[in-house]
Amino acid sequence: MAATSSTLLLFFFLLQTLTLGSGTVAVYKKTYIFRINHLMKPSIFPTHEHWYTSPSFGVSTLHIYSTVFHGFSASLTAERAAALGNHPAVLAVFQDRLRYVHTTRSPQFLGLRNKQGLWSDSDYGAEVIVGILDTGVWPERRSFSDRNIGPVPSRWRGTCETGENFPGSICNRKLVGARFFSRGHDASADAAGGIGGINETVEFRSPRDADGHGTHTASTAAGRHVFGASLSGYASGIAKGVAPKARVAVYKVCWKGSGCLDSDILAGFDSAVADGVDVISISIGGGDGISAPYYLDPIAVGAFGAVSKGVFVASSAGNDGPTAMSVTNLAPWLTTVGAGTIDRTFPADIVLGDGRRLSGVSLYSGPAIDGQMYPLVYPGKSGGLPASLCMENSLDPKLVKGTIVVCDRGSSPRVAKGLVVKNAGGVGMILANGISNGEGLVGDAHVLPACAVGSDEGDSVKSYITANANPTATLAFRGTIIGVKPAPVVASFSGRGPNGLTPEVLKPDLIAPGVNILAAWTDAVGPTGLDSDHRKTEFNILSGTSMACPHVSGAAALLKSAHPSWSPAAIRSAMMTSSNLVDNTLQPVTDEGTGEPVTPLDIGAGHLNLYKAMDPGLVYDMGYADYVTFLCALEYEPKMIQIITHSPVTCPAKRPQPENLNYPSIMVVFEGAASVNQSKTVVRTVTNVEAAGSGVYKAKVSMVSGKGLAVSVKPGKLVFSPAVNKQSFAVTVTVTAVTAAGDPGSAPAADYGYLTWSDGTHEVRSPIVVSRIQPL
Question: Based on the structure, what is the number of domains in the chain?
């Protein structure tokens, strides 16, 4: 481990050393996070903070971590960081890494009803505190009103930090706390190759939200009932979060235009747990497509510290789907959430000059152009890639002035393309998906009349342009439609499995509403998020796994309120084993991009269904020791594991199997083309959480795909009593016929099915995925 750290730091040092024209060498600073073995603190120091800031380490610290993580961050040269990495108390050194946010009616779509079921049984989550790690909050929104909410729970230890345009008195019984973390960004402003720090012209140096993302996710998780909500008339009705009475604590760790740094995120985790939150929602992930080992991933390390203290952590699965292995936030103690649609859409039509009507979506709310035909142009026909993508300064005003412009999706924000068209004199835009996006659509509050269409409709428009000397079109906007079928479908952008870091753990865990979600918004920027968009709106409609994650955070708040003794793993299990596999037509859930049925690699255990999660029957519970055993199974060295766990560990002499982690889903991995009669057995333990304490559950296995496989469960019956509330069982997968594995390095071939334990009332279902990986 030490040699590896030294090699990495030497590499960073070489990257940061610049030979100038005069022959001199300038060495620049970067921010590093130091994981310290806190058990080595000399007794002479009264606190760890005194130790970290003493001459023993000899650095000026940015953040001190002491709850979910022990250590500090500091701005240093790579040479100094490498030297400090040799300190006997330093377990690991991470270079600060940039992350990004993964950018109403949905509670009803999840099965929640006023004065019934989980909302009623949990008192709408009134005594639970949800911590939101994001871009801050716009506290004046009605979603954060504390009207008719009782006193702040006495266990709350947090504060409302004063800052720019954010008085400490602005928090209330609903928004119980707010903090901001900027030292990582401030240090980066002084570093060559850094992200430039915080843009003071658009940001608030306080918990106030200049971006909108944090306000949206916070109100999705726990916003109050707000009557008369809409985005310029779209999605009008009563807006509400999943846990409307839960308390909200905001931790601003991301900054408009400059993302989120690990050093600040860790500080947010540390403060949230110390303050006393029950749930953490983090719609943040890596922006480089790389999944670091768990001991090198500060989000995974921070989340482990939170979960080990009983705090449920929900994270977003990322928006790089439908590519295989695109799912992010892979640690098994995180609940990783993908995105699906709800039964509401915002249709807009393209009417071509030949009379054809093509369907799309839009949230445009300005002056309409219904019925007026305009020339239709596709800049990519002659202008190449930048013009086809409507990149900045790529459009010729002589070509597009007074026309409706067809722009291809990709490379720049969808709404930014519309601004480019508008600035070049265009009167409207058709935003066409490429093959990778398929037919998956999201609505945007465009700055000009604009409509998004799928790949097939986009090809039809382009073909019409090619075939006609004077092509024309108009756009028609049809408002809000409710009762759309089928729904849910898995959003084309939603991050997909398999788990590229630990194939034995299925990710994502489940999906939740994440397409066209109405929630509160900031006054600092218009609904497009563009600096030039000066419209003000109380609510906005966004799409992304960022929007799906807080649905699960709010759900966890409700379940925690109804079942205070449940662990984070039990809460996740209840959601996963009771999830839906069918849409509102009672057919298998499909993929938005292809229309084909999805697999557990796309949807995890299924779509969140809170009507059933309240009473799951059985749960797959886990705790600290289970996760330690899992880390031992990965053959991490003890020092690597201690980076995650805080405490020294001793792994068993016989290596455990990672697939035996007591997860609510089952992954069985064969390397290469397995031979006939080869088998693997995984073990699980279920806990009966029925109030009566007694019950008899029988197993049923149904394989959706899996020729050449046999699956057995022993025992096939589990008997529970008040004296025996835990039972274990084994699932054995046997190869009965050889099938080929995927190409080396590719996403593995996979078959799947489901194991269901039933007592006649409860259906406790787990996906079984059998994967064949071709070794590199």
Answer: 4
Question: How would you write 34-92 as a 3-class SS string?
Answer: EEECHHHCCCCCCCHHHHHCCCCCCCCEEEEECCCCCEEEEEEEHHHHHHHCCCCCEEE
Q: 63, 70, 102, 213: which one is catalytic?
A: 213
Place of tokens 């500080």: 267
What tokens were used for 571? 């809460």
Whether 124 and 200 share a structural domain: yes
Please state, as a whole number, how many other Cβ atoms lie within 10 Å of the Cβ of residue 214. 29
User: What number of other Cβ atoms are within 10 A of residue 415's Cβ?
Assistant: 22
Evaluate whether residue 568 is within a structural domain. yes
Q: Is 546 a catalytic residue?
A: yes
Higher pLDDT, 98 or 18: 98
185 is catalytic: no
Nearest to 413 by CA among 365, 452, 439: 452
Same domain, 89 and 132: no
Question: Do 229 and 291 have their domain in common?
Answer: yes
- Structure-block tokens of residue 218: 């916070």
What distance in Å separates the CA atoms of residue 188 and residue 201, rounded to the nearest whole number?
17
Task: Name the residue among 110, 117, 103, 114 with its Cα closest to residue 488.
Answer: 110
Please write the tens of the pLDDT for every residue from 468-521: 999 999 999 999 999 999 999 999 999 999 999 999 999 999 999 999 999 999
Is the same domain home to 396 and 337? Answer: no
State how far the Cα of 580 lies from the Cα of 513, in Å rounded to an integer: 13
Position of tokens 């702040």? 152
Verify cis geometry, omega within 30 degrees of 0, for the bond prior to 658.
no
Residue 3 has pLDDT above 60, yes or no: no
- The pTM score is 0.91
DSSP 490: B
The secondary structure element, H or E, covering residue 17 is strand 17-19
Q: Is 652 exposed, middle or buried (0-12, 13-18, 19+ CB in 10 A)?
A: exposed
Structural domain range at position 607: 100-343+488-613
Instruction: Please tell me which residue in 134, 211, 262, 320 is annotated as part of the active site.
Output: 134
CA dist list (Å): 753 to 581, 586, 699, 756: 12, 18, 13, 10
pLDDT tens by residue, 327-386: 999 999 999 999 999 999 999 999 999 999 999 999 999 888 878 999 999 998 776 778
Angstrom CA distances, 773 to 670, 672, 743, stand at 6, 5, 8
pLDDT for residue 166 is more than 70? yes
Query: What pLDDT, on a 0 to 100 scale, did the predictor assign at position 627?
Result: 97
Do residues 266 and 142 both lie within one domain?
yes
Q: What is the CATH number of the domain that holds 765?
A: 2.60.40.2310
Active-site residue flag, 213 = yes
Cα(724)–Cα(738) distance, integer angstroms: 41
Which residue in the list 546, 561, 573, 579 is annotated as catalytic? 546
Three-state DSSP class for residue 578: coil
